Amino acid sequence: MKQILVLVFTLFTALTYAQEKELFNGKNLDGWTVYGTEKWYVEDGLLVCESGPDKQYGYLGTDKHYKNFELTVDFKQLADGNSGIFIRSTVEGTTVSGWQVEVAPPGYDTGGIYESYGRHWLVKPAPEKDKALKMGEWNTMKIRVDGDNVTSWLNGTEMVTLNDKIVGAGEGSVILQIHDGGGIKVQWKNIKITELK
After folding, report:
1. Hey, what's the torsion of the CAs at 129, 137, 112, 145, to 10 degrees?
2. What DSSP element (H or E) covers 35?
3. How many helices, marked H, and strands, marked E, lie in the chain?
4. Per-residue model confidence as pLDDT tens digits over 81-137
5. Which residues touch 134 (CB under 8 Å, ≥6 apart)?
6. How far apart are CA 147 and CA 103, in angstroms?
């Protein structure tokens, strides 16, 4: 009887706690779709986004939609670095609908939440939190999305928390962005997601 109870508890624990999953395999773009003409490629096990000759917006989105989750992403800004991580978002052509957790050079609100083609900035981090960003070095962004709540952390510093019913109703993918204007190059790795129950 004791062995049966241990087995039941083990199964219950395994089902209750979600498993972390790698979204990027370090080899190719399987599981992702490119939107636009900007460059997305794999080099030395890293995902790289780079402005192309058109210097327009570009996106790389997961084929799967994710609703409630915790996402961690490592990024290194090699040039301008104006990019972002969209949550519960969709793309048509190069028009994105959804919410971006900003990735940008110093002084441009990395970790803040922006609504594209809608209400624009929903919340920006306090200016003193900008020192958490290490330009030209590896940074870790963590994003927790659960119902109406979104929280971002940069290198362990909580940047913003948002409670918003419109975001809560959103559906869509995790999407990485290249901003328009050209001159942007960012490396990404360790893109991991844990879906929340």
Report:
1. -110
2. strand 32-35
3. 2, 15
4. 789 999 999 999 889 999 999 999 999 999 999 999 999 999 999 999 999 999 999
5. 155
6. 23
